[in-house]
Amino acid sequence: MKLPAPAKVNLHLRILGQRADGFHDIETLMVPVTLSDEITVEISLGRTVRVFCDNPDVPLGENNLAARAAQEFSRQTGRKFAARIDIQKRIPLGAGLGGGSSDAASVLIALDAIFETRLGVTELQRLAAHLGSDVPFFIRRNPAWCRGRGEIIEPCELPEKLPLLLIKPSFGVETPWAYKHWAAARELPGGFEKEQDLGWVKVFNSLERPVFEKFLVLPVMKRWLLEQPGVRVAAMSGSGSTMFAVLQAGASGESLAERVKEHFGPGLWTAVCETLE
User: Fold this and answer.
1) Which sequence spans correspond to the domains of the chain?
2) pLDDT above 80 for 105
3) From 65's CA, which of 73, 107, 124, 272 has a CA 20 to 30 Å away?
4) Domain spanning 2-155 has what CATH number?
């Protein structure tokens, strides 16, 4: 079975505090976008889960979240099988775009369909929560407000489709590091933490504080994006390092991508996409 695994952006991400279990309580509006990996799942007799990927930087063993998803499905349903998981990787690593979480969710969805277990959204989200905080969101793949540590999901509708430019530098950011350093990070100068108003949501990201403090090119990039014609708002997605710009109607994402590479260097990864309904 073959299916897409979409990326996401966080239009709003506010950390409310740290919990006793070490996680953080958050409130975030996560939105899937048209950029996606492609996942192919094949099953056979046996017990081995093998992962293949066209990106050599993706771990293929126990640390791969897609492999862990297959193992978790087997444990929770009692189904015994061998699985081959092929990942065509289009979402960069360490980007704050949820690529690994989306891949894992797609494996759960595929196995549920292959075995006709008909677990339903609620049960699939319960399984997904064992794998990571973002994985339950990708089961439904709708825009949603996510709370708790991300597992409390309230689907919503966006009043408009948003054209986006995604920009990722050559480095990534580890999500645990960003959350660990959030509390001790200092307030950003120059109005960087000011909410940006899209009219129906305030664009904001609490994790910009620790990430911008360490990776100094990112606040410079955000300021530059906000000065560009055709850009409505600009922010970091998730724990970074991807920055995104929401474009005005008719603005060219390709043209902005060319300008950002001219200004910050050709090594940047960029993608023009839009939000999914």
Assistant:
1) 2-155, 163-274
2) yes
3) 272
4) 3.30.230.10
Q: Which residues are 53's β-sheet partners?
A: 87
3-state DSSP call for residue 191?
coil
The catalytic site residues sit at: 8, 134
- Sort strands 202-205 and 2-18 into parallel, antiparallel or unpaired: parallel
CATH number of 163-274: 3.30.70.890
Confidence label for 249 from pLDDT (cuts 50, 70 and 90)? very high
For residues 89-93, average pLDDT? 97
The encoded tokens of residue 37 equal: 């990996």
Phi, psi of 219, rounded to the nearest 5 degrees: -65, -35
User: How far is 9 from 25, CA to CA, in rounded Å?
Assistant: 18
**14-43 burial: b if 16+ Cβ within 10 Å, else e:** bbeeeeeeeebebbbbbbbbebbbbbebeb
**CA-CA-CA-CA torsion sign (178, 140, 107, 270):** negative
